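Researcher: Re-running this chain for the archive, since the previous output was lost when a drive failed. Same request as before.
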Amino acid sequence: MATRVSDTWQTVFNIINSIDYTHPHLSKYIYSSFPDVAIRNKEYYPLIVIQSPEFRQEEHGYSNVENSVRMTIEIYATSAETRDQLADKIISKIEESRSTLESNNLYRPVIVSMSDMTYSRGGMKIHLKRLVYEFKMVYER
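Model: Regenerated C-alpha cells:
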C-alpha cells in the first residue's frame, strides 16, 4: 500500500487512456495537471486532466480500513460538443471497467459532482467539464 496514490492515479489513467477517440480532429492528451504549453495552441485540445486522488480513511472494526477516494477528471475542449462527447466516453468507460477497478482495489465508482464552465484563454473559448468521482477502497490492516 506504499504506492496507493500513484497506483490509484495510474489505474484511472489507464482506463481513460484506453478510450477509442473517433473524432477526426481529436488528439489525445492526458495530464496530471493543466500543462502551461497547451494554453495558447488550439491543436493541443481537447485535453484531459486527472487530478491526484484524495483519500479519507474510515476504520471498520479491528481488521478492515476503508478509504473514500475522490478523483477529479477535467475535460478541456474548444467546443462544448467535443467536451460532452468525451465526458460520455469517460463515464461509459469507467462503468465498463468495474472489474479492472476492483482488481486494483477500487469499488463502487460514483459521480458525486459534475459541472461545466466556459472561459477565454489565450484568445480561445475553452469549454471545461469537471467530473468528480468517489470510489471505495477496502483493505486489511
